[in-house]
Amino acid sequence: MTAPAPLLFQPLKLNSLTLPNRAVVSPMCMYSAVGGLANEFHLVHLGQFALAGAGLVFTEACSVSPEGRISPEDLGLWSDQHLLPLGRVTDFVHAQGGRIGVQLAHAGRKASTYAPWRGRGTVLPEQGGWTVIGPDDQPFSDTFPTPTAMTETDIHRVTADFVAATKRAVMGGFDAVEVHAAHGYLLHQFLSPLANSRTDQYGGSFENRTRFLLEVVRGVRAAWPMHLPLFVRISATDWAEGGWDAEQSTVLADLLDKEGVDVLDISSGGLTTAQQIPVGPAYQTPMAAQIKQAVPDLAVMTVGLIDTPELAERILQAGEADLIALGRPFLRDPHWVQTAASALGSAPQLPNQYARSGR
């Protein structure tokens, strides 16, 4: 009898989508688009992970509204013009037997900022920037733009933008969609008392602060095919006193499960410059484990300083998560899956052209 494959290399079925392994390319901003349009860079960048056997490849955050981009160079899905170049990417990934998801996002008060290697802080209108929006008029920091507080009409408009982008994701051939509600971006801003001082039905109580996200998720779930998985990424804690925390995240997880979310992607931080993050190997995984235990019907993805195959496998074997998302490890080694398979004594599912690499 042969030993079972490591959990990292066992398939995972999410609705009708079966992932060949549990290694996921995490959404990572590349700051390389013009007008939100994907180009040859994105085709090669994302396509390489499919060639190398990643179980699921996520695009970077695709803004659902022009003003929702983090930087002027972010990808977008607010227009039908974005479909053809993104469709080239999904077609290529599928031709290699891969699976690809899209992360839908709105940066809120953290929008209209420079790509990291171009500068810091606000991109002014004369330099291609724009007026940003948020739950209230608090800026992220004194170098970031001051947002205009959203009206309820603005909230409904952005919700509709998420739904419209989801419909485009269906037409674009994506296998999964993720709603970005983490890292201090718009939906996270509404969740946290540190960024949301509203006194209407979208601020104050836990029920009110979660209302916007739940309305977005409800709309996205209705527009996204039920047989395909819906992910939501949250920051489980702000790592700051008086902010969003793991206990609130656990309650939210149960609500998202009831709304038809299939996978909760657990990250943390990004909401405030006052955050104090105890960074270390797999430092966010305990929060993923807490949520997985509390809401067992909801699949959980963990991310954050999971650099080695052995650590990824230990997390899965301990039942702390169902999927492992990796960012920098894939940037350092696009063939991380093959490296991990060798380390764990397994063999990844690869395109025919690359199959001999495992022999």
UniProtKB/TrEMBL annotation:
Highest taxon of the lineage: Bacteria
Flavoprotein in keyword set: yes
Cofactor(s) named in the record: FMN
CDD domains reported in the protein's UniProt record: OYE_YqiM_FMN (cd02932)
Keywords from the named record: Flavoprotein, FMN, NADP, Oxidoreductase
Keyword Oxidoreductase annotated: yes
Pfam families assigned to the protein according to its UniProt record, in alphabetical order: Oxidored_FMN
Ranges that cross the membrane: none
NADH:flavin oxidoreductase/NADH oxidase N-terminal domain sequence ranges: 8-343
Gene3D superfamilies per the UniProt record, alphabetical: Aldolase class I
PANTHER family membership: NADPH DEHYDROGENASE C23G7.10C-RELATED
This protein's name: NADH:flavin oxidoreductase/NADH oxidase
Organism, scientific name: Deinococcus oregonensis
